[in-house]
Amino acid sequence: xxxxxxxxxEQVTGGYEQSSRLALSARIPLLRGAGEIARExxxxxxxxxxxxxxxxxxxxxxxxxxxxxxxxxxxQSRSEIVNQENQLRSLERLARSTQEGVSAGRREAFEADxxxxxxxxxxxxxxxxxxxxxxxxxRFKVRLGxxxxxxxxxxxxxxxxxxxxxxxxxxxNRALTYRLDLQNDRDGVDDARRALRNARNGLLPDFNxxxxxxxxxxxxxxxxxxxxxxxxxxxxxxxTLSLPLxxxxxxxxxxxxxxxxxxxVRDYERKRDEVIVSVRAALRNIEQARxxxxxxxxxxxxxxxxxxxxxxxxxEVDPQDVVNAENDKLDAENQRDAARTQLRNAVLNYLLESDxxxxxxxxxxxxxxGMPVNP
Length: 375
What we know:
The chain is mostly helical. Helix content is 65%, strand content 9%. The strands form 2 sheets. The chain has a 3-stranded antiparallel β-sheet with strand order 1-2-3, with no helix packed on it. A two-stranded antiparallel sheet has the order 4-5.
């Protein structure tokens, strides 16, 4: 047993001989698999990263517009409360003056009851508006990620966006240039064309150039290190040509890429036309909202003058006529505030549809040159 152990020790440790080899080899395709197709995975990965970055920036802009829409809705609801409070005070004055007229014998008792009933209705409407505003504000806080019990005060600052002065053709051209999602679709056409070129490359014959360069280490070096023996250098070069005999799968793949390219081009052209239609519609919405605001402001002025004229002849005017005038004035004021909100949203939607909207790192609106926010 001892003799066998010694013999094993001698065979293992007594005659160490290294057999390391430093080798370099390369294989270069010259036809099939040559060119950009060799870097296809890297190229597509880089382009996919750009697409995701554009999608994320587009999402940030859409989110800003959506948040602004909710915020402008809050401002409109608050304005409706203010309008209702003003009408309530005016109706209370009407109820008092009518009651004084009844006490003096100039009015009938039912006229005072009518005025008091309208006051009660205005109080109920005011309570409903306040409750709706509280619910709307709570939902807005939740959407911003705030606690529902957090205190939020809306600014009294007038936030009016300047209206763009641009023709529909110019707006469409800007949208075609700046729309990030359209840029992705346009680059997708390039990806489909590149995929078609790669599929055509798959039908080429295989013609590869290969080479190998090898330098063995010194067999007499017992240290196990890298001791190169240059006298024993080996190298070889080879060129191989393989003619395609059966490429049916590659031909089917080529047809598939042709169909995919045609479908991608059609989708891009459809999306391009949709962008043109949407940006023109957004521009028309601005004009329509501006026109509605002008009409609403005129209606407020007319009803205000009508109500002032009735107050000058309070003893001669039927209280019901005054109530009707108050209701018409309230409706006109609410329509004016709604038109102002629509105009703000229309401007933001146009900037979004044309992708001229810019959002800074903190998520705030960046105004374009020549478009300052009115103080």
